[in-house]
Amino acid sequence: MKDRLRGVITPVLTPYNDDLGIAIDLYLEHAGGCLTAGAHYLSPFGTTSEALSNAPRERMEMLELLVSSGTVRADQLMPGTGMNSLEETLILSRHAVEMGCAGVMTLPPFFYVTASDEGLYRYFSQLIEAIASDALKICLYHIPQNTGIGISPTLAARLNQAFPEIVVAYKDSSGDWENTKAVIETAPGISVFPGSESFLIDGMKIGGGGCISASCNSNVAAIRAMFDQAALAQWDAAEAMLPRIKQHRLAIQQGGLIPALKALKAYQTGDARWLNLRPPLENADPNLGPEVAKTLT
Amino acid sequence: MKDRLRGVITPVLTPYNDDLGIAIDLYLEHAGGCLTAGAHYLSPFGTTSEALSNAPRERMEMLELLVSSGTVRADQLMPGTGMNSLEETLILSRHAVEMGCAGVMTLPPFFYVTASDEGLYRYFSQLIEAIASDALKICLYHIPQNTGIGISPTLAARLNQAFPEIVVAYKDSSGDWENTKAVIETAPGISVFPGSESFLIDGMKIGGGGCISASCNSNVAAIRAMFDQAALAQWDAAEAMLPRIKQHRLAIQQGGLIPALKALKAYQTGDARWLNLRPPLENADPNLGPEVAKTLT
């Protein structure tokens, strides 16, 4: 248990130049900044990163650049790798393993919204058997509001039992505390990360791993401080920090998460490229920036 | 209008060997058989083809093989090309244009279930502007039960008005006749293909293009005969064929579409490889084959 994955993890925003190519300078600066401010790990190419709007090629190149630039160590990375085809998920996951990443965060194949737990088990077990390496550490990524298909507590437990050294974590972005709790209870071998810091304390009280949250792009120092208190079981101290943290989270959520975070970055850095999002998302409204910033002062 | 895309189109099943690689021999035989039996066009890598379970690489290789083997002419192909990232959709669509395909069938970027019509317009218009060829003919692919996001009649009309030579068709797999009708009425420049032959006659009566239907893998001769009567406005003759055709469709739907079609192929050909599906789908039950076959005799 002591080696299990824990911490505050930033699903790193992906900034774009005006031609919508990745803005590498902004990316490296932001990723490094998240670590300096207290993130334990980075998850490039999660939902907050507009992961699915980036081709596998770009995603692999960016991971390599994060490491080769000295911005991040590979063992601080837990990139998103879930595509629909097993071949593409395999390519991204194997690449992460070969780089020495701490883990991979893997969506279910989300075109198949009516797939059974048996079919999903078949998908993940074939992935694991094809990679054939204990260096693979999978964080199952549950975000049914986007994928239309979730990863049930029972499936998580079954995968952990079959592959105890490999299926070791679960990101719950459903916002449904009952599901988070059910995974923690049903799959005790798995480290569960709520997708919002609002559930960090409640999760850690019963064995949760911390959080992987969009707001770790904008408020990671405060979230890390709360995590540190929770990790010491200083629940009252942690709880005292929560209202302010929740207020910021709410402002970001009301602004639609990614646009709000990007508008805030544009406001903080003065670099308007931060307002760019790739289609089908629309660019961020610059007016959101100063509004969201008020919840940080 | 006379040149608009019309006909009976088969979204070709993808057969797999026992190691789950594409069974090329079965694929070419089946694709050729669909054309011989009456399909006007083939749509490799639609939903019935388990499209999203095949990597872009495999999809492009298979299209090239269909043509180089002499099985199909490129102008008889309308492959699926919709991925989430614009780069991947662009690669697949440009490849189809360069091959000389009749069109491409393109999903919306389906991870983004809350994208606005404005955002989707931005996605499709950037795709079209990047390809920059009037040889591109897009069939918008509406299948909200899988994608979680649809292509509204208004968006279809807007895209057709902006790109009248390029956005020329719409596949409606929703099974919602009101939507099919609304697209035909709202976007008269677009050729609308219901995803089921059950709506072929009703659609063609008001200007629809035919159908692109899973059952064109198993029953294309009958569907083509019905189309031919409808194309001559021999509505009574067409209607007389419909009950039998619907009975077969129902049997396939009840068997879960892809597994039922594959079980039927396994039964008809005696080749058990037809029972294979890629995960997260499960293999077909061989007992379905003879049952479904009864609705064809």
Topology:
The structure is a homodimer of 297-residue chains.
Chain A: E1 7-10, H1 24-36, E2 41-42, H2 56-68, H3 86-99, E3 104-106, H4 117-131, E4 138-142, H5 144-147, H6 153-162, E5 167-172, H7 177-186, E6 191-194, H8 200-205, E7 210-212, H9 220-231, H10 235-254, H11 258-269, H12 288-294
Parallel strand pairs in A: 1-2, 1-7, 3-4, 4-5, 5-6
Low-confidence stretches of chain A: none
**Count, helices of chain A:** 12
- At CATH's second level, what is the architecture of chain A? Alpha-Beta Barrel
Mean pLDDT of chain A, to the nearest integer, reads 97
Q: What oligomeric state do these chains adopt?
A: homodimer
Q: Share of helix among residues of chain A?
A: 40-55%
CATH class descriptor of chain A: Alpha Beta
Query: How is the largest sheet of chain A built, in terms of strand order?
Result: 3-4-5-6
Major sheet details of chain A: 4 strands, parallel
**Amount of beta strand of chain A:** 5-15%
CATH homolog superfamily of chain A: Aldolase class I
Helix/strand structural class of chain A: alpha/beta
Q: Please report the distance between the alpha carbons of the first and last residues of chain A.
A: 38 Å
Q: In one word, what is the shape of chain A? A: globular
Q: Per CATH, what is the topology of chain A?
A: TIM Barrel
What series of H and E elements makes up the topology of chain A?
Answer: EHEHHEHEHHEHEHEHHHH
The Rg value of chain A, from CA coordinates, equals: 18 Å
Q: Biggest interface and its residues per chain?
A: A-B, 35 and 36 residues
Number of domains of chain A: 1
